[in-house]
Amino acid sequence: MTEIDVKQKILAANAAAAGELRAAFGASGTLVVNLISSPGSGKTTLLEATARALKSRLRLGGLDGDIATERDAERLRSAGIPARQILTGGACHLDARQVEKALAEEGGELAGLDVLFIENVGNLICPTTYDLGEDFKVALLSVVEGDDKPFKYPAIFARAAVTVVTKADLLPHVDFDLPAVRRQVGALNPSARLLVTSARTGNGMETWYALLEEELAAKRGAPVEALAAP
Amino acid sequence: MTEIDVKQKILAANAAAAGELRAAFGASGTLVVNLISSPGSGKTTLLEATARALKSRLRLGGLDGDIATERDAERLRSAGIPARQILTGGACHLDARQVEKALAEEGGELAGLDVLFIENVGNLICPTTYDLGEDFKVALLSVVEGDDKPFKYPAIFARAAVTVVTKADLLPHVDFDLPAVRRQVGALNPSARLLVTSARTGNGMETWYALLEEELAAKRGAPVEALAAP
Fold it and tell me: To probe the interface with B, which of A11, A120, A144 has the most B CB atoms within 10 Å?
């Protein structure tokens, strides 16, 4: 068996597990968002702000993939939502079986959520091809990482339905050509949405919250106003 | 053959190729530095500044690994040193055979260098276990990525002889606990050197240049003053 055979076998097994997850999330009406970015782009910070803003209206939870430490799940719990860390044992991405296992072990707290955030391992490459049963992928890009990244890491920006530009409060201090990023993302994925946010100042965050509520309502075939409070 | 068998076979083949590279670099007295970081931590920016500062004294060259685009090698050539892009075809790291092939194809320009910089694919995880025949690895961490990264990505910070903290000019605008990073890196690798730099302002860069010259002199068993000019 060659390296390529092994990879294809792994991806086929992952796709089967992801299909099971997607069916379960469909039955429970849970919107599942798979967040992918470099280390330090602000995934956890975005989710902390989201938890604080939406937890009174929606049941939110998180799964946090990392090589080491429980830090990210602790941060989400401190922000008031249930969260579980998945340590990948060195692997540079989460896979669908790990998500299944974490949900099964966690039991009650992560069942029946309105929105489940899956914070992938900090990596712009490896997580791209592993379906986790999500409704959509979100790619994050901080303004400090440079405006050439979509074309340098095209696979994730082509697959992410939403690109969130983060740390926009630092724009005055860095060289970052936002229109160039918009053009690159648009070329890779014409239907992608691009949001510009600063979790620190709150700028742009309302658009992100509205997007989540709209996607949840669309999944449930219900108007946004009818979304259940906990 | 299992996934683990395949990985071990790949790493064994890589180690053999890396050994050949290391012998060749030893014979030519070329110091080889393997730079590893997240996307956007400032590897290319560090090398542009290094090229401009040292190219009158030392023969420098670069190999730039990426998933896509020729941008990084173009930036180094614009800074006045020979450089060649290696496109990895989707792989999240360089391997020793790719380095061998690129050097063989490039021929003259990258032969007989004083210092060869290998800028790995932007990734804190995958490049860690692939020996490229380098003298040492350098891990870069920008102050915007957060002060929790060494413990979250321990393998690279344990293996890098040098950690370069980058974009220090942004320290006034972010929460970044430098002593905490120093403690984490020290715990993972007690002999590691940690430099704090801003390629934009030049702060800390002289220490980086001096480190390169000292390492080159040590490799050649000669005093720094005796290093050849081009």
Answer: A144
A3: contact with B, CB 8 A cutoff: yes
Answer yes or no: is pLDDT of A230 > 80: no
Residue B85: its H or E element: strand B83-87
DSSP character for A125? S
Whether B124 and chain A come into contact, CB under 8 Å, resolves to yes
Give the residue-averaged pLDDT of A33-52: 98
From residue B37, alpha-carbon distances to A118, B24, B141, B155, B180 in Å are: 23, 26, 7, 12, 19
Q: Which chain B residues touch A39 with a CB distance below 8 Å?
A: 38, 124, 145-146, 149, 152-153
d(CA B83, CA B77): 6
Give the C-alpha separation, B2 to B7, whole Å: 9
Range with lowest mean pLDDT among A64-73, A117-126, B44-53, B109-118: B109-118
Give the Cα separation of A33 and A122 in Å (integer). 15
Best residue in A72, A153, A156 to probe B by mutation, most B CBs within 10 Å? A153
Distance from CA of A124 to the nearest CA of B (A): 8
What parts of chain B have a pLDDT lower than 50?
230
CA distance B153 to chain A (A): 6
Residue environment code for B68-103, b if the CB has 16+ CB neighbours within 10 A, otherwise e: bbeebbebbbebebbbbbbebeebbbbbbbbbbebb
Q: What does the pLDDT read at residue A134?
A: 98
The per-residue pLDDT for range B65-96, each reduced to its tens digit, is 999 999 999 999 999 999 999 999 889 999 99
